[in-house]
Design a protein that fits this description.
3 copies of one chain form a homotrimer. Chain A is built from 6 helices and 18 strands. In chain A, α1 runs antiparallel to α6. Chain A starts with 7 loop residues before the first strand and ends in a 10-residue tail after the last helix. In chain A, the strands form 4 sheets. Chain A has a 7-stranded antiparallel sheet, covered by helices on one side. In chain A, strands 2-3-4-9 form a 4-stranded antiparallel sheet, with no helix packed on it. Chain A has a 4-stranded antiparallel sheet with strand order 5-6-7-8, with no helix packed on it. In chain A, 47% of the residues are buried. With 356 residues, the first copy, chain A, is an alpha+beta fold. At the A-B interface, loops of A face α2 and α5 of B.
Chain lengths: 356, 356, 356
């Protein structure tokens, strides 16, 4: 069961530059493409004629043309034309609310009547000259909630990412989790420590000495449906830490948009927005490369953890203080999904049952 | 549910030249090999001793020898000998009616008592000096009936095969479907058009100008269980089209023998028989190569369509005029399968339930 | 259903040299590693914290450290420590009796109270200067009992291993099967025959002529749960055969430890212990290489046989005299499994239901 009434990142704009993109989101196969005036459209990836995936077709003058028999699909899910056919009686296919914003394509897989683009998470770094951004996409064979757990408990860095961002002090410093409405915040501050390799790179990237003691912070913020934005950074020790002036620190936001594919697989849009030396493209590239390597280290662990959990559905997991971020995030999700179910029942809208 | 009381193409002779061939047909695992005097034999691919696939064995002096413990199987499914054993009491395995004819091995997966070799589809081009033939084999992960639909509606050529045999005029010219007994015929004639690349190759192959207007025809003929033979060709415009004399046209038959493997996979024996310049082997090779490339373009579409249909069994597909050929062919199949089921019940023959 | 109250070979020592090893045995995912003083430990491969496989972790000063969040697991399945946590209340995970002996790691996947290391099969060649040993490991997608059948009926050598150890005389010489308690013995003696290629290599390895008639023997011994040790060899004809003095023969034991992974897959620990020219390491290597090649020939047959049997569970296989070894071995297994089930019921111990 997914939270369907929510905005998920579906893809990045470059993925629909040349041709339609087929992607399964929350169990629903969707085709994304650019219609007239570059407007993004999201439709059921199923031609009403014979069931071919529309994503195997082409876009011609803003119309999606089925690659099998040439049916022309309109941006609202109604067939516009088909060679030699009257199409007025053709059944419509489902159209999904979709918005291009902040460098991402966002889709709403639930009840279209409830889709409000103002609820899309604001990303302040987009088109902002003080910031630079780089990121990527992974497909992972695990429940997206395992990734929420992962990102809301960064003690794993010490073990999974021992050679880059991990360090013993993460474990040793207590974290604090608070819930503010639908937001869960887990924060940890480590003072007067040695910077691990990735952060030395970042310090040098901001023309700062990398061999002096630093203060380090990690502030993980979960918001539904499955966004985790993490303020991270280091400042030269004694300069105010998180509150130090930009000249004394390297400050970034780790960006994690988790989009469920099925109950046991997900799309992971990851990236880093940094607020230092934003014009240095080589630095953007090297940070992106480093992050790609680091985040790759999680994949095997998450996929093997998923297999273990599927083999033992009866086992209860521990919920320690370090797990509070994930536990609270899941609680908010469960509550929202329960509300969604109640709402559907009340409105006698037939429940949306995605194919798995 | 398959139409079992029918002749299917099982393989080509070269596939059993050196050793036995194991192939699953209509859900039944069958071993094919050449017994004495080169006669083709088809048996259950299951050694009665310990269940080893007989197709992993060898053929020695016309006897199929199990590759595990040396059981010698006879062409009627009775064990002939086994080192150190008396084999009289060994259970027989099923033997299938099988015939080598017209350059193919044909098998009858149903009730052997009903198998009549005279019902094998006559292929007039075989061993006929006026014709040349070339072809190949694909394995496709789709219901064979999706391929029937594909071949009985050639409007897909415009989209799937846009760079070779497709052209806009196919779409724009109406097709006509008729049912003649158990045969379904869908035909389309396009006059005074430009020949697409594949047909330019064919015209040159018959020493005809390829840059003049042509008349083009496509006459698709479905016959049970799943043969689709398509008369195709082009003639210089104004020379009588389909009825033009051989000197003014390039005339061929596209050969499509579809053999179900399981409910969602099939063997596709494809080829082209041409009635022009038959002695030109280089032309045969280049036509075969072109057809291989063209038919490869269908595979991804068919397999992805199959997945879409499996994910949405509840959705009804459209049946347009262009789909009439497939629709009528499926109707004939359904009727024959219903008759087969009734016949089995009446004769109190235990129903043949193939393993899937 | 497996015989759980038994010692199985889990791995070889080199497999846990550097890091933990995860291996599924009798449907149970187990992690093996070396704790303090090199003692081997076997635990449930499931971290009690969040279900990560402990086998993805590391061993630090004899403690197994989970690779996800640093939980330190003790050798009895109790959590020792975790950064920033009190672990006293953590649930224990299952610990398995495990013993390192004779060059193998042995595990007891059943009731720990019944595990008696003295019941581990004695291997006389280990650490014995009169013997040399070489071997390897295969993963095979078949029920381990199909491999018992294979090894207790060596007539298959004539067909599967025709170019190395097979010869027509195996088929032609009757075998004899006896049951001695829980041991099944199938033996075959062939006198005054020509040695096949593998045995010519062995004769030369013992500085004996390889082109003279030999006496050959095969004495297969099954003992539960699934060990098959086969005395094999050739002696120059007329020197006493099996009883010939070492100077006139090449005598070996084929070692087969079969460890079920799931109902349809297994780990196959194979090897050969030889009692001639034991110091010749090049000979050990070439025998091992030959055996690797020969035993590889069985894999496809076994896996395809398994598929055939899964497709036709209703079919009964033949049980010929040559099959007596496998049939009797399976009977002993069935009886022991029935006893195990009865014992569990009587002691009201909850039955051990491994995940598949």
């Amino acid at each position: 069961m997914f939270l369907l009434n929510a905005w998920y990142v579906a893809c990045t704009p470059n993925e629909i530059d040349d041709k339609p993109l087929g992607r399964k989101i929350c169990g629903q196969s969707i085709v994304f493409y650019r219609a007239q005036e570059n407007q993004v459209v999201a439709l059921d990836d199923f031609c009403p004629h014979r069931g071919a995936p529309l994503s195997l077709g082409t876009v011609t003058e803003g119309k999606l043309v089925c690659g099998y028999h040439g049916l022309e699909m309109g941006s609202e899910g109604k067939t516009i034309a088909m060679p030699g056919q009257r199409v007025r009686g053709f059944p419509a296919i489902r159209s999904y609310p979709v918005v291009e914003r902040y460098g991402f394509i966002w889709v709403w897989p639930g009840d279209a009547a409830l889709a409000d683009p103002t609820k899309i998470h604001h990303l302040e770094w987009h088109d902002n000259p003080e910031w630079a951004y780089g990121g990527g996409l992974f497909h992972i064979a695990c429940d997206y909630r395992l990734m929420i757990d992962n990102l809301m408990d960064l003690t794993h860095e010490t073990y999974v990412h021992a050679t880059s961002i991990g360090q013993k002090e993460i474990d040793e410093s207590p974290c604090k989790t608070t819930v503010e409405g639908q937001q869960v915040v887990t924060s940890r501050y480590m003072n007067n420590i040695s910077a691990p390799p990735f952060w030395r790179l970042a310090l040098r990237g901001n023309n700062l000495a990398d061999d002096v003691p630093v203060d380090r912070w990690q502030i993980c913020r979960f918001t539904p449906p499955s966004h985790v934005l993490i303020e991270v950074g280091v400042a030269h020790a004694g300069q105010g830490g998180y509150d130090a002036t930009p000249a004394h620190k390297a400050y970034s936001v780790v960006v994690d948009f988790l989009t469920p594919e099925s109950e046991t697989s997900m799309w992971y849009f990851w990236g880093m927005a940094r607020k230092f030396n934003p014009k240095d493209k080589a630095l953007t590239a090297s940070i992106r490369e480093g992050q790609h390597k680091i985040f790759s280290e999680d994949l095997d662990m998450l996929e093997r953890q998923q297999k273990n959990l599927l083999a033992h559905p009866e086992r209860k997991l521990l919920m320690l203080n370090i797990d509070a971020g994930g536990v609270q995030s899941r609680k908010i999700l469960e509550q929202l999904i329960a509300e969604q179910t109640a709402q559907q029942a009340a409105h006698t809208i037939p429940p949306i049952v995605p194919a798995t």
